[in-house]
Hints:
The chain is an alpha+beta fold. The chain is built from 3 helices and 22 strands. It starts with 5 loop residues before the first helix and ends in a 10-residue tail after the last strand.
Amino acid sequence: MPKQCPLRKLGSKTENLEGNIKLAILFVAIITVWMLSGLFTADEKVEQKSTEKTLKTVETLEVKPETYTRYLEITGTTEPFQLVNLAARTESQVQEILKDRGEHVQKGDVLLTLDTEQRKETLEAAKLDLKKAEALYNAASKLNQQGYRADTSLDTRRAELALAQEVLKRAENDLSYTQIKSPIDGVVEDRAVEVGDYAKKGEMLYTLVSRDIYKIITHVSQKDHDHVSLNETAYATLSNGMEVSGTITFVASNADTITRTYKVEIEIQSDKQIPTGMSARVRIPTQTMTAYLVPYASMLLDDAGHLGAVVLDSSNTTHFVEVNPLDDNGNGVYLTGFNSEKINVIVRGQNGVVEGETVENKAVKKAPQKSKAF
């Protein structure tokens, strides 16, 4: 077998080496393109994530307008609607006590009786005197009509008849005064006499107070006087926690000379007994308007120290709204100044945004619990 030429053998090796280099270069190029494509994709994802992170997420609560009533809050004192001091209208000894302290009475009930003494006999004598006077007057009248008696004689009989009628009336009253009766439906607050005591005319016997109907006495300032009207409903919380309501029945037009305030009376109907002389916190409605109940969690102070809240518009852009609270009900504050059917107020995250910033809105059904902000 003939031997291969050395030069041809060397050329064959060179061709094989060039093919391997080409393959290596091609492999490196593919790897480089793959790595670069992954790098660009990662950059795009990082850029996309960076763009997404620029929108802060806040929680908002939708608040709709409602009817708000502004109340004038003042203090007052409970009093009985009627307080009656019963005094003796005749003199006699106390014979029997029928009603005592704390007992309920009806109008016309007999509370105690006095000894009638000779009053019944006096009454019977007055009745006989009246009959005699009537008979003499009738006889004189007939004789006068027949022309047998002068007019002066008839006038005398007429005067005697009038006097007899008056004496009888006094005797009847004097006898009736021995029965001390209640002039109202109420409760016996006090009794000042005992059985056997001698009651003098004008001496105090009983103190009665009305029941089921009371009044609260309060006073309003000069600036609030015109906001209080008759027949309006007022509300009160007594010192014992009892809640009552009633009608304003009196508003003074003349101020107290010392306090320069105006007296107001509120009539209260209540089946439960109301202690008189008890302090009361009175609430009188003065104005009705449309307002928004915003939770405490939305309240914050801006850089100037103004109290307000941050709301979102339709494009989820933030706006700080300075507020002047009307009132609070324990869950939030009532605000005015919005002219829309609803507002979206930020309840979480408002401290991390600035005016005019676009944010991502996450609506919630309930605001975080927070105590009063002011």
